[in-house]
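Retry 2 of 3 after timeout on previous attempt. Resubmitting structure tokens to design endpoint.
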């Protein structure tokens, strides 16, 4: 029987792999029907209703953006970025009915012969479902938001 840590780590690694392989609709399927995915525009932002966001949406918006990327309709991703993610420093807090997870990430992106790195920290609230998880909440905070950013469409 797998430990909670092993299950959570495998879930995060699978999420990264789906995005690296441009399998965005499968990735969107990892989210619960009632969910929030938030990428704030500033590290100190604490409320998406009060602050600007790079992305803020529910399951429908995540699926809509994922479909555009999967079907080649996200013109900002033409040509598509080639990416690999590294997920590390995973911290897990088992709570009542959900699992709170913090993890660092680095995304290596190659697009139009240019290589870029994006680093940050994610906070997840995962719902245990059928031996796996669904993402109830994900907040991804990028490091270096005070610097000019190129196309971040790959974040969805």
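Retry 2 succeeded. Sequence:
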């Amino acid at each position: 029987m797998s430990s909670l840590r092993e299950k959570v780590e495998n879930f995060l690694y699978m999420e990264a792999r789906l995005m690296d392989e441009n399998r965005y609709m499968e990735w969107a399927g990892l989210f619960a029907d009632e969910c929030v995915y938030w990428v704030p525009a500033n590290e100190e932002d604490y409320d998406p209703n009060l602050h600007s966001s790079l992305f803020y949406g529910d399951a429908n918006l995540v699926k809509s953006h994922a479909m555009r990327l999967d079907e080649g309709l996200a013109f900002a991703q033409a040509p598509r970025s080639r990416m690999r993610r590294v997920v590390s420093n995973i911290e897990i807090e088992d709570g009542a009915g959900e699992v709170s997870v913090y993890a660092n990430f680095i995304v290596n992106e190659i697009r139009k012969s240019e290589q870029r790195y994006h680093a940050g920290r994610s906070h997840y609230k995962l719902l245990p479902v059928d031996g796996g998880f669904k993402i109830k909440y994900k907040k991804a905070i990028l490091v270096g938001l005070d610097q000019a950013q190129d196309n971040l469409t790959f974040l969805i």
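Attempt log closed. The chain has a mean pLDDT of 89.
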